[in-house]
Amino acid sequence: MKPQPPKPTQAEREAELRSLDERIGEALRADSAELRASPAWGKPLPDTGDAQVPQELRMAFKLLKNSGNVPTEVGLMQELQAWRDELFRLPADSPEAEPLRRRIAERQLLIQVRIERLARTRSL
Fold first, then answer.
1. Where is this region: Disordered (predicted)?
2. pLDDT tens across 92-123, in order?
């Protein structure tokens, strides 16, 4: 069996952390000009549409989505967002607007029920 290397002292660990912090700061300062040139600089991050998903399930949903296996709830949310976008483009007094509002309300309720069930069972 190989002998274990000696554990670093508290002072050595703190010095290493300070060194890492300094290196991160230097990298951020070096890249700041490139970051500031980005058109997204200073703007909020885009809405991912997962505000209704409980925090503890967001990573699982994201992994499934990135692998191409979209959970039913995510598909329902995408469809809901498409309907909201469509409603936004329609005039408020349009004859198509009211049925679309009803579909949106029904879909929101369905999503809410499914998400609450997921949060209760804590499983997909």
1. 28-51
2. 888 889 999 999 999 999 998 988 888 888 76
